[in-house]
Amino acid sequence: MIHLLEELKIEDFQKLTVSLRGNIDLRTNIIVFTFKGQLDAFSEKQFKNFVSNNLKNEYPFVIDLTKIDFLDSSGLGALVQTAKECKKLKLGFSIVGNSRVAQTIKLVRLGDFLNLKSCLEDALTYLKN
Question: Which domains are present in the chain?
Answer without folding.
Answer: 2-128 (3.30.750.24)
